[in-house]
Amino acid sequence: MTVREMQAQELAMKAIHKESQFILDVRNPSDFEEWKIEGEQLKHLNIPYFDLIDGVEDILDQIPSDQEVLVVCAKEGSSVMVAEMLAEHGRNVAYLKGGMKAWSEHLVPLKVGNLADGGELYQFVRIGKGCLSYMAVSNGEAALFDPTRMTEVYLEFARSINAEIRHVLDTHLHADHISGGRMMAEQTGAAYWLPPKDAAEVVFEYKPLQDGEKVRIGSTTISIEALYSPGHTIGSTSFVIDDQYLLTGDILFIDSIGRPDLAGLAEDWVGDLRETLYARYAELSDDLTVLPAHFMIMDELNEDGTVAKKLGNLYRDNHGLNMSDEAEFRTMVTKNLPPQPNSYQEIRQTNMGKMLPDTDKQREMEIGPNRCAVR
Fold this sequence. Notes:
Layout: E1 3-6, H1 8-16, E2 21-25, H2 29-34, E3 42-46, E4 69-72, H3 77-88, E5 93-96, H4 99-105, E6 108-114, E7 120-126, E8 131-138, E9 141-145, H5 151-160, E10 164-169, H6 181-188, E11 191-194, E12 207-208, E13 214-217, E14 222-228, E15 237-241, E16 245-249, E17 257-258, H7 266-280, E18 289-292, E19 309-310, H8 311-317, H9 326-335, H10 344-351, H11 359-366, E20 373-374
Parallel strand pairs: 1-5, 2-3, 2-4, 4-5, 9-10, 10-11, 11-12, 16-18
Antiparallel strand pairs: 6-7, 7-8, 8-9, 13-14, 14-15, 15-16, 17-20, 18-19
């Protein structure tokens, strides 16, 4: 049997479309338990590579013979060797090209919907990390929201639809992944917008996002209006696009709400978080489609792979929006917190421009799951 190479895009489509796949993950158990490839129909077996150096005979009875097996490791090398050993025993085997590194960095562009006068809104799903970014397009001009550091994906996509990126906007100073905003602005000449209350320590030039600020793209002027919405950070800003979509950043997710502690100020910011969720957002139309900057679990994806839901539905279904007892709310978002993101302080310093890590270091800093939410 020969071993084939599986690209991250193929695996992403399997996860999105809930297709079956058996995965042999040969990373260390601690790494596997912290972060693995998620999907409703994905089945896992975790056997560390070092247990397989002398052969795979002892695990053959755990490896299916009637379907393809995907071998996964951190960077690819170990998975290729294990895959070749399994193939020698007659198994149908593939390995994940680039390993978990490639899985972490892969973006899937999906159309969310149409905007006025022929415009379109796209969502980029970073399926291995749970990050979501957006591109609004109108008459050959584009605005990009919360971009990741994989800037070439956005540049290639913009070229494919004949659009020029004119504005790049971050909803807040990110702490779980490195923003591509400043790099995108440098590569395209676009204006880079940041909430000024989050940008007090940045060491580069930016355009300050103020409450009510309107950014327009295209000759048909699709309006993108900034809505100050603190709580995850002191400067967190949401965007209402075309009176149809609400980009909530890390304040509100489909199945959870944002955490207020990543700058060490949970007790100070919890009141802002509640005010945003229970007052500012409550005044908006229930028909707005909520588009967050992250998702936590694959269940939050719609059938087409997008992460989106009506605001009215979230006020009905999201537990974080239905806590009438303020003391209970405060306890949940200050005491019941998941572990903080890996290297989050270094990531914040990088996004301020105070650190300039190389690509390998950036990858290392971002390894692991998204941890921006409270459920």
